[in-house]
User: What shape does this take?
Amino acid sequence: MCIVFRTLRASRRILPCSIPWIHFLPIGTIPPGQRSRLILVGAFRTAPLVGTEIFSSRIKNFNMPRSPTSSEDEMAQSFSDYSVESESDSSKEETIYDTIRATAEKPSSRMEDSQSNILVIRIIIPDLQQTKCIRFNPEASVWVAKQRILCTLNQSLKDVLNYGLFQPESNGRDGKFLDEERLLREYPQPVNKGVPSLEFRYKKRVYRQFNLDEKHLAKLHTKANLKKFMDHVHHLSVEKMTKMLDRGLDPNYHDLESGETPLTLAAQLDNTVEVIKALKNGGAHLDFRAKDGMTALHKAARAKNQVALKTLLELGASPNYKDSCGLTPLYHTAVVGGDPFCCELLLHEHATVSCKDENGWQEIHQACRYGHVQHLEHLLFYGADMCAQNASGNTALHICALYNQESCARVLLFRGANKEIKNYNSQSPFQALQENAFPKDSEFQVPGIA
Assistant: This one.
């Protein structure tokens, strides 16, 4: 007798099954951000398969507070799936809101009790015609404040990741959008004029000119002109770009075909230093995201474009910008591998190590999964935690065992990694190596179960 396991992707329906002893994981038990997958879990009539994370961790530790995935392979795929799956705009927006609500930091009780640690700001949301007074921690980043605002909304905003906090002009200072990775306290608010105000609005070019001709701007932003501008970026026509920008074109928009912004497109091309500078000087926001949720810095890291990455950082881009899944450019470099220069450059520019995806995978896990030894060395040098465990309790050494990455395992052991740590299936890395004998197909058979 054998048991057949099937992995169902991108399905929100419970499918009929002719095998009575296979049970489905109810949708209600799956967090909103995880509902794009359903896992079939077999109910064993005999003892479960001891030691294999692929199966028994879902049976033995069913009540463990972790992601409802069934195997290491599927958890690793969580990163790649989100960028290639075709989803409707509405489902993407729903997923983004779920991610934001799941990762938003809750105010600590200490902050609630201490008035000195509270910053009250009136948030004006023009698109929803709403005004809210919200308490913030001044030591929190603008990104965290943005998440806090989104969690209070009772209406959805389209392309919500490209909304930002805008500080109106005052006391002779020009209005500007707050950089997402800076702290709130770095933007001083007037204290003698009542409760300070910020606007939460869609990121657009901030024009310095007065008395703008709205009709002229509307004619400039036709579909034909926007497509022409993308062509100029693609062909590195800096002079033609500059002329259109000087006329008032806003470079913060998405191409209808590719979903790229002019800046994210330039970040993936060669020899684009002048193009990137022209876009920045023309009002492009460095943290404006493409349709897939990535900033130009993410695109440069994934394309292994060292020159573009360095240029963006020199222009003020933060190495810790988050994409729609909350992942940083450093996390992406650990996945794509290649020349470790991009990884080293981000770390040198104070990129935060130990960014987690929805299944608890960090950069060190991904580097070990794909066998990127040099990336692993850089991560360890800058303080990556060798004992960090993902949602299944696996350390980087477990990942090396599961994916047969001997070189990475040697590096970890040489650095003093603890080889006695057990995952949530009570496996040490050595035990995981011994029992990792099943194929990672979406449908396969396990012989020998009587």
Notes: Confidence is low (pLDDT under 50) at residues 1-71, 80-86, 107-114, 438-450. Residues 136 and 145 are 7 Å apart (CA to CA). The first strand starts at residue 3 and ends at 9. Residues 3-84 form one domain.
